[in-house]
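User: Assemble these into one structure.

Assistant: Restating your components, then the assembled model:
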Amino acid sequence: MSAAAQGTSKAGHGDVASRKKKGPGALATAYLVIYNVVMTAGWLVIAVGLVRAYLARGSYHGLYYSIEKPLKFFQTGALLEILHCAVGIVPSSVVLTGFQVMSRVFLTWAVTHSVREVQSEDSVLLFVTAWTVTEIIRYSFYTFSLLNHLPYLIKWARYTFFIVLYPMGVSGELLTIYAALPYVQKTGLYSVTLPNKYNFSFDYYAFLILVMISYIPLFPQLYFHMIRQRKKVLGHTEDYSKVE
Amino acid sequence: MLLQRKWSTIRNYFNKVEVLDAKTKEQLCFLDKVDPHSTIGDIKSLFYKSYPQWYPARQALRLDPKGKSLRDEEVLQNLPVGTTATMYFEDLGPQLGWTTVFFAEYMGALLTYLLFFFRVPYIYSHTQAFTSSPHSVVTLACVCHTFHYMKRLMETIFVHRFSHGTMPLRAIVKNCAYYWGFSAWLAYYINHPLYTPPSYGELQVKYALFTFAMCEMGNLSIHMSLSNHRVDGFRLRRFPMPTKNPFTWLFFFVSCPNYTYEVGAWVSFTVMTQCLPVAIYTLFGFIQMTIWAKGKHKAYIREFKDYPSVRMAIIPLIL
């Protein structure tokens, strides 16, 4: 088997790359603005929901239940961003975006939703708060960038808040997965054992442990990538709106 | 050509070659008195004398720092250069010959499977160590899997002609991980003490074995036909055509029947073992081979104006 075909597949990619450099058309821009405004609003709803629930209850335990539905809706909606990259209206890598969105969706549905017992854990609040603040800033950043009126404050916030929010979110995520482990093992959630007709097995417990381990090489890479981006973006004084 | 040769001998006409680093543009080497009939391969050998850590296989020489690498067979005087040729060098990293690469990949896959077939200790429970499965299909699957990779090894040694000599080291690690990893994964289930034989029993196994054998023979026929096709070297004068061998008649319908047969063999193996991991491996292989087949198909269409329009890339009439 030869890898001779690589040259030809690159030819097509070149076309998309030049189209990406020109940016999305007017219709695509309008759609993206609407999309980003809706997402900003959605995460603001979640933020407000958290604050109101905290004030009503007087404690920060069990706040997940008050924002469960909008969290699921808007986090899952982010799957559209993979489509945006695939179609070419957003100049990001499909693989990278796909990976980031899927990890969020995985945590929302395959861990928090699926393992009821972890929903009352404080670690859930930790990552939900981190996600909420990050996403409000990120989506408003995109909105303003698309409209070519990016306030420096938003740009600064996008490339600065992550320094605290990213480790905060990762901690919350890891603690939540860790909390889910005993229940997954006990109930055999999403697991398939031998013998069966298709000679296949899957141990969700082992899989979750692997996911936790994968944070070790991945988190530093992503974190330091953002730090380098920060130096590049905030290092310039001109309004260089590079969409991340 | 003979007159030119005499002319250059009379006039003592030589080229000079300047080699610059493709990234930094600093001069790495200046070759005086280079015979204009030298090939790029010769120049690489000369460059190697000054830089013994960069053997010719890991050198990429280009006329433009961002352009395509020059082939080793290219002759200096046929290149668009003046009396002094400026070339840009890039280090391709440690290289291994294609034969070595394939050998490692296929031998690894073959032997890994056998570890599971013989139930080497620590894979399954210790009571099962060195036991064998009561199901005949498990032995058959081992024979088929081993045959498949033996055939590939034989082809690597005796049949294939490789256009580039080498492959970078990092690619080999990645490829071996793929082959060995998947081999281990599917061998684990097929040779597992709790393996469940196919739902339709002997009939399913026999049919699958038949199609597997047909696809293996088909794949071999195509490889041999392509190998004979390349007798003249690297450039294809004509696109591959069906021959008297009925297995090659698939060329009427697809550009890369070798990939078609390969997918067919793995689908057969999936049905024979009724094992989901094998199906997943088949799917991955199919996706990769489709990408390669589509590329080759496009290359053929571009190069040969009379390329048959009924031909698809990998699946007749469909893909």
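Chain A touches chain B at residues 1-9, 194-201 (CB under 8 Å).
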